[in-house]
Amino acid sequence: MINMEPENLTEETALIDVDHTGKTIVIVDDDQTTLKMLEVFLSKLGYQVFCAESGTRAWELVRTKKPTFLISDMLLPGIHGVELCQKLKNDPELKDTKVILITAVYSGGISRSSDFYCDRDGFLEKPVDLKKLKEVLQSI
Q: Is 120 exposed, middle or buried (0-12, 13-18, 19+ CB in 10 A)?
């Protein structure tokens, strides 16, 4: 099991084998531990990372940074993760941004139901498996 503490996320843990220079990621999560873990991990992979603690702040960042990827928790203050995904996918300038939704609250069939539909590119349950996240980022 990978120790999720930011200081333990080494280059070896990050499994660096692809150059991600120039690719940006906006991460939004109101859980500081998850946010920091993902920030450190993705930075070690070579991504330029921007973080937000609310859907509203994430929307501001997405509009200004125009990232390659958005990784968003579903249950957020401000704009819900699914609504954030829908706004992004409906915006002509941002629609090609790849969206990965993460959640600890909604799982299984509930998170995949029509109530939570958006044109997301990936979905992961918390706690986030970093190897799986890396695989999803490389496959989309």
A: buried
